[in-house]
Design goal:
Radius of gyration: 16 Å
Strand order of the largest sheet: 3-2-1-4
Helix content: 40-55%
Distance between the termini: 42 Å
Number of helices: 7
Order of helices and strands: HEHEHEHHEHH
Shape: globular
Number of strands: 4
Largest sheet: 4 strands, parallel
Length: 169
């Protein structure tokens, strides 16, 4: 929730009030907190969590609803409506922590073009979805896409052998 408040303050300082927020989602705590914070602040930002863990989307959506409700109740604010609960499920691949080709391309491209390191387990898969959504026209080119990098760079060391061939295909 605090992250949502801080993010909205930063966006407000830049005159950004609409757009799409994208982040990896696994245990759903970050996504629930962001959604409750955005809703409590009256933000119109759309939030998409990219599934990096669960293979049962229906259970994951129900769990996100529960976490949002409990978080909102603790803070005495209204929970976000169901229409705001977006979990993107097509970029998990074969399972948690298993690299995908789309993730590999995203990690490589962002490192090469932006100098930003994404991890293969979380942020790499979330960025792969964001890049796909932009290329497919799922996001408006007239509104900002905000990517929340939740860390995980040490995870690169565990995937060194897989990533070592980057750029040599």
């Amino acid at each position: 929730v605090g992250c949502a408040v801080e993010l909205l303050d930063q966006l407000d300082a830049q005159g950004i009030h609409t757009g799409t927020l994208v982040s990896a989602t696994s245990s759903l705590g970050t996504q629930a907190g962001l959604l409750v914070g955005l809703e409590a602040a009256g933000s119109t930002l759309e939030m998409h969590g990219v599934n990096t863990y669960a293979s049962d989307p229906a259970h994951q959506t129900a769990e996100l609803r529960r976490l949002c409700n409990e978080t909102a109740s603790l803070l005495g604010v209204a929970p976000p409506p169901d229409a705001r609960l977006h979990i993107e499920t097509d970029f998990l691949g074969p399972g948690y922590g298993v690299p995908t080709e789309a993730m590999h391309r995203a990690v490589e491209e962002v490192a090469r073009l932006e100098g930003i390191l994404l991890d293969p387990v979380y942020t790499g898969k979330a960025m792969a979805w964001l890049m796909h959504a932009i290329r497919q026209g799922r996001l408006s080119p007239d509104e900002p896409a905000i990517f929340l990098h939740t860390g995980g760079s040490p995870g690169l060391f565990a995937y060194q052998q897989y990533l070592a061939g980057a750029g040599r295909r």
